Write the structure tokens for this entry.
Amino acid sequence: MDQLLLRSGDSYRQLATFPTYVIFFCQFDYYGRGWARYRFEDREITDPLMTAHNGQHSVIFNATASDYRRADALGPFLDLMAGNVNNKDKFIAQIQAEIKSIKTNQERWLENMLYELKMQERFDAGEEQELNTERNRTVQKFIAWSRQRGADQATVVTDLAELYGISK
């Protein structure tokens, strides 16, 4: 994100004048502490009192929290994410109206569905890439292990083909 904030030759210290926030809304508790909101900023690992002073912040909201005191006014929104709708809240009523509008407007609904399909394709591609990377690591380890035990290349190829159910 900060690449767009600085021009060539600008000092990195200028980043502090452009605070950036990355906000995640999760339907799970990534950190497992039960908090509704987790806030992070860059800190030095061996001296956490020293910050990078670059204005970068990450905020993670947890819709499964039982206590939203840490979430301030976003509690009703987190409730909505968790499936507990409170239409008495003005903000939630606006969101519900927008959702209804999207569902009843065929063009907007189609745009939303296409967006979700593209996101799923990206997710699936990432999973496939991760799977291939892990498979390659396993194959490399297997080859090294086999060679240490004196197996010839033909035996290694045969064993790998059997392991993965592929042709030699």
